[in-house]
Structures are given as structure tokens and as C-alpha cells.
Design goal:
single chain, 240 residues, mainly beta, Jelly Rolls, 8-stranded antiparallel β-sheet, 7-stranded antiparallel β-sheet, globular, binds calcium ion
Length: 240
């Protein structure tokens, strides 16, 4: 009976695993700036240091004509009142490029791009809400005048804890949605490929973070990614 149970579990895992996608390894990412790998195999993008910035980029581009879900967890620091500046999940066709740090969160000036901003510092001249907030923005414009969606105010996220952060893309409805801890917080329906990337559906994705006159720890860990890889794959991407 035990043997049969184990066998069934193994069979089910083989069936289910491809549907859930795979867990990336640290070698799948390029690190830049102040980023380093922690003992728990998470990426520390910034420490509690002023004027720091870091980013990671997944080496394999994704194809926006296909649906995907990227599941990661983020830690946006342990300082609420004096913590800054935040993190941005970004798509861009350019490899290993980042924008300006500080209030730009490594996203400002990155063109073309789509960014999901997790902003923890009030910059009045950028029209930031007082509260921590999420926005979907394009082409590195971090002021809240041209957001595709948001800003959506969220409860304090600089609570020294990891939060589930899922990015979902459904090309059939052109819906980009973001979940935090299992709840959809922000979504936008727009022609991401046509309006932002000039018809090119192959883009890289990554995460940037930055500090300025104030700081925080910013960290990201990966759960899994489900996607259909572009074909043909560039480079040595045959690793299962
Ligand atoms: Ca800000
Ligand atoms: Ca906060």
C-alpha cells in the first residue's frame, strides 16, 4: 500500500510540476549594482545604506504572446517611517540596463519598459501618496501622472517580512495583474506589446531597488515561474 501511495505521488508530481512551472536557480539571474546573494539564496538588492542600488535580471527572455506567472517573494525593509525608496519589477527588451536610483528606484529613465513599482517613500514632487503604494508605469516615468494603473495604496510593507509577490500576464485579455500575499492588488489591461515595445513581444524581466537619503533592506527570493519560452532560445538555455 505504501509503495502504491508513493508511486501515485510521484506520478502526480510529474503531471503537476510542468503546470506549476519551475523554480529558477540563482545561476538564472544576472546581478548588478550592490546586489549579493544571501545564505538563504535570496538576492539582497540593497542593505540599510544610503544611495545604494541593485538589480537582478532573469537571463532568459519571456514571450509576451504567451501567458505566464512569475512567483517571487519580496522583503521591502524593516524601517517604516524612515525607510526608502522601494522596488520595481520591470520588463524591458534591453539586457542588464537600469535607471536612476534613489526616488527613481532603478527604473526612472529606463526606456522602453513596463514597471510595477512598490514605492515606500513619499516624494511630493512625484505626486506619491503618503502610504506605501503600487503602480504600473511605463518607460521609466516614476511620477504619478501617466500611470497605466494606480497608485494603489497598500498597508505598510516595510515590516521586515517576506511577502508573496506574483506577476501574472494573460495575453488573451492583455491583463497584467499583481498579487500580494495571494490577493490581487493592482491590474491593468493594455496593449503592452504594441504600445510599449513596438510590437516586439520578447522582453527580459527583473527587479530593481534603490535607496537615497534614507534606506532600507530590499530583498527578493524566487518561488517559481511558469511560462512558455521563446523559440529559438538564445544561448545555452536547454537546461531543464
Ligand atoms: Ca517614492
Ligand atoms: Ca511604509
Amino acid at each position: 500500500m505504501f509503495f502504491r501511495t508513493v508511486t501515485l505521488t510521484q506520478v502526480l508530481s510529474l503531471l503537476i510540476f510542468p503546470l506549476l512551472g519551475q523554480r529558477p536557480t540563482v545561476e538564472d539571474f544576472t546581478m548588478s549594482g550592490d546586489t549579493y546573494l544571501t545564505e538563504e539564496e535570496c538576492f539582497r538588492l540593497t542593505d540599510e545604506e544610503d544611495y545604494s542600488s541593485g538589480s537582478i535580471w532573469y537571463k532568459i527572455p519571456i514571450d509576451l504572446t504567451q501567458a505566464f506567472s512569475i512567483r517571487l517573494s519580496i522583503m521591502a525593509g524593516c524601517q517604516d517611517a524612515i525607510g526608502a525608496d522601494g522596488m520595481v519589477f520591470a520588463f524591458t527588451p534591453k539586457t542588464n540596463r537600469v535607471g536612476f536610483r534613489g526616488e527613481g528606484i532603478g527604473f526612472s529613465g529606463l526606456v522602453p519598459s513596463v514597471g510595477i513599482e512598490i514605492d515606500t517613500w513619499l516624494n511630493e514632487h512625484l505626486n506619491d501618496p503618503v502610504e506605501d503604494h503600487l503602480s504600473i508605469m511605463i518607460n521609466g516615468r516614476v511620477g504619478h501622472w501617466n500611470d497605466v494603473a494606480g497608485p494603489v495604496k497598500i498597508p505598510n510593507i516595510e515590516d521586515c517580512r517576506r511577502h508573496g509577490f506574483y506577476v501574472n500576464w494573460a495575453p488573451s485579455s492583455q491583463k497584467l495583474s499583481v498579487e500580494i500575499d495571494g490577493e490581487e492588488v493592482i491590474a491593468a489591461q493594455f496593449d503592452l506589446v504594441g504600445k510599449v515595445f513596438g510590437g516586439n513581444p520578447i522582453v527580459y524581466w527583473g527587479m530593481t531597488a534603490a535607496t537615497g537619503r534614507y534606506n532600507n533592506i530590499h530583498e527578493v527570493c524566487f518561488d517559481r515561474i511558469s511560462q512558455v519560452l521563446p523559440n529559438p532560445l538564445p544561448g545555452n538555455l536547454g537546461r531543464p
